[in-house]
Amino acid sequence: QVQLVESGGGLVQAGGSLRLSCAASGRIFSSYMGWFRQAPGKEREFVAGINWSGTSTYYANSVKGRFTISTDNAKNTVYLQMNSLKPEDTAVYYCNKNPPDIAYWGQGTQVTVSS
Fold first, then answer.
1. Sheet with 10-13: strands ordered across
2. pLDDT at 29 over 80
3. Predicted confidence band at 2 (pLDDT cuts at 50, 70, 90)?
């Protein structure tokens, strides 16, 4: 079973940047991957998606223009560059297939944005 391991989270001030990584332990046979997040007391929501070739990307309206998703096929890794972070971006961030597969949810990585 392929596992996804997220990393790169942390504490940052509003306006700052973070780069998240999602490393797959093997090849995932899915055309699309995505980043998702879950804030305290809220449901998990979609953030950004990409195909493995990187030719198609799409974003939630709340992050459009601030976040950039990318892939490195050679490393089986998906990245999320997050700029101009806001306190409302505070959440645990997860990667998964898109649409998500319950078997691939990992531990996530915590992002906390202070005001």
1. 10-13, 109-114, 91-97, 32-38, 45-51, 57-59
2. no
3. confident
